Amino acid sequence: MKIWKGFGSGHSARLKIVGEFTAIEDAELMRELVDDFVNGIQNEKYRSMEEFWDAWSAAKVGEQFAGMIRWLGATKDDFEMGLDDTVDVKCEGTTVTVSGFRTNAVGGVIKLMLCKYPTSVTVTGQTGP
């Protein structure tokens, strides 16, 4: 059974996040991280934010980046974003596109992207019917 917090009419949102990075390696790592975060929550791969942080430990991504993910990235509140469908995460060159959000609770994804020093992060779409 899934339980999540929901507020207002967020499930009528149609949002897309686009992150631009300076290196292809950074974009590919960010695609993997964001995909694991949003779809790991949806597919119940992680029962808590701590499990997600542990999966992205210093042994996997290096001490500095793992620390940024834990302390500057997504929070426990972001983990409970209330996803009700799979989110599409793609990487093309240095661009990462995250689409399919039917919620306006996308702050966790933006915070994760900021951990890899993007040149830009933009959110497009609408939050109403």
Keywords:
6 helices, disordered N terminus, 129 residues, 40% helix, alpha+beta, four-stranded antiparallel β-sheet
How would you explain this protein's 3D organization?
The chain is of the alpha+beta class and 129 residues long. The chain has one domain (25-126). Helices cover 40% and strands 20% of the residues. It has six helices and four strands; from the N terminus they run βαααααββαβ. The chain has a four-stranded antiparallel β-sheet, with helices on one face. A hairpin with a 2-residue loop joins strand 2 and strand 3.
SS content category? alpha+beta
Report strand order across the widest sheet.
2-3-1-4
Could you say how many structural domains there are in total? 1
The shape, in one word, is globular
Question: How far apart are the first and last residues' alpha carbons, in Å?
Answer: 28 Å
Number of helices: 6
Unreliable segments of 5+ consecutive residues:
1-10
Average pLDDT number: 84
Write down the secondary-structure element order: EHHHHHEEHE
Radius of gyration: 14 Å
The major β-sheet equals: 4 strands, antiparallel
Percent of residues in beta strands? 15-25%
Helix content: 40-55%
Number of strands: 4
